[in-house]
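Support case: user asked for a sample of complex input and structure output to validate their parser. Sending the pair below.
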Amino acid sequence: MLIPALWLAALVYASELTLLSVGFTLTYLTAKVPNFAHGTYAGVGIYVSFTFAKVWGLSPYLGFPVAFIVGGIMSVIIYILVIGTLARMGGGSIVLTIATLAIQITLSALIYIYAFWLRAMMGGYTMNFLLKENDFEWIGFPGIFPVAIGISIAAVLVLHYLLTRTKMGVAMRATAEDPELSSVLGININQIQLFSWFLTGGLACLAGAMIPMWFMSTPGSGSAIITSIMAGSLLGGFESVYGAIVGGFAVGLSEILLTYVGSEVFGTWVGEYRPLVPMIFLIAVLLVEPRGLQGVYDRIMARRMISPKTTPTPEAEKKEEGEKKE
Amino acid sequence: MMADIALGILGSLPTAIEGTNRLVVDIAMFFGLLVIVAMALNFQYGNAGIPNMGCAVQVIIGAFTVSALTVRLCFMIIEGAGVKLMSWASDYDWVYHMTWNVATANNFLKNQFMLSVSLLLFSLAVAILLGAVIGYLISLPAIRLRATYLMIVLITMADASQIFGRNIVSISGGTLGEFIPDVFRWYPGDKGVICAVVTLFLGLISFFIFRTMLNSPYGRLMRSLRENEVTVASVGKDVVSIRRNILMFASGVTAIAGVMNAFYTSYVIEAAYTRAYWTYWPWLMLILGGPGNNAGTFLGCAIVVALRRIIVVYKFTIQAVFFFPISYLEEIILGVLMVAVMIFRPNGLIPEKLLYVPGVNYSNIVQEEVKVDWRSAPKARLKGGGPLGRKKKEEPKEEEKK
């Protein structure tokens, strides 16, 4: 095998986390609420894959588009029923955040109940499973490796195209910047919100559908991943989609690699402390630079603009423009 | 039934505490525990606007104080008194000799009233101190930033404390848990009764402390901080340090609940201190009762604790109907109730009243009676406001109500 299994696992996990972090940031940008239920959407995706592979006996890859649609519809329903209603009533960001926590609790309980129902219906293991044997092989790699990385790269490219080239994406960015001004300009904010919740829910569910192809999954593993998602989003700056891409990938990669290196150096007990890695990231980012990588990038750009020695090259100017658009 | 309960409490006949009476004692105990947490939360969120999502951390600190410090102190004193204990120095001995050692300690504590009480007071004092320290530490990364960051950090800290408790055996026995010497062994009757009475007494003391603080000038400062930070800062108050002090104080009080829970169950294990139990349920109590007033907190706490305890007690009867464990039904009730209360009764069952401080002549200050909606007032000034930007439609409605 060309790449050791550890790196494969790290890369697969990092690309899944990239999708989740981007969705989390996008929700925060458009709805101004950190969606604590975002990890639990991934839990729904896990069970879409499980249903396809074990209940219906199909390839779990067929479940990926279904997972996207299921996640999107679920997310839209949550927005219409809870978040949108509360926002219309004038609930502040704290109230909305508590509402997402309540959604997270309910949704994860529903996933557990679904798992118990499956167990009652068909027996066998429905709580703790791995779908590696349903995977195909591609020149020596397990199929999920190219698929996960391909999907995350494609999603990032599509998202970039959407946000910079299409009317919908520009309207989305405008809404994130100032909802009132954009509504004055004739943007249907409700439609934008629905679209963005559909997109983020779909991406999260898609990422979740990829998790059981490589990692041991339980009904709770979706909810447990939320710390890593938030760490990735915070590392990227919390308000920058491009930052979240880098941040999510970095946190996902380092979560597995750092734990491995730590257990090689200090002993196997380090493995127990794996959930602490994203928490360390979270606290370090908040203590050092609360605006994350985006803040560092902005500072470097500002310094380059101020210093008289280097006149801004056309490339840098382009980058700055891209920056302002964000 | 009331006569039985009275008899049970006064005479403490072990036979009196059975069946329904046991349920009443249990509800009283958990009401006492959770009302301390919920009151501290009301102090922070309802009055000062600090969204403390880390109640579980502070409760777990109280429990760990008992399991790591009080137990060791107790063993040291007992060995000093000449009673032979099995060795408890290494991690292995600490866990596997714990049952024997605790049984010996319980026999010893039976006739030691003063020692038991001082152990209890020691754990409370240390827990309050450590709770305040942990409140300072967890507030460090995010207290200067937006409330959202604070919530994120505090929620993750609850998981972090559980991970430490699970893996460091000398704190609370790791995954096996740890038995706690019974400091109420001197009491001749039922232990649950005396434990509930002590907890309710502690809750009462903390209620009076909180009430005094809220009616003092500091309480008014807290409310003004909730309404508008910029105004508070512009009149020369240090917003960050006020917020940190409030968080530290409330953290210390929350740790009491952990201590009393450890003594009540005589057992500490990290898995019992999940954030779902010790953070989300107190938040539901606060939101259900109405943030900002202690009466609402009491009502919300009573409703929720009674509901939960009845589900737990009649678990096997209800369980027969469902194919999944009943705890998930409980979680669904928690989530749905929380959202429903926020949508249909945003101010809770008992909305916050306008604060009238005795001795202040309000008619001189304000000629006409102005009713301020404390809940929605800060949102109008938040940058960005509601995500849909519909707050402007909201304001005329409030005026119509007047």
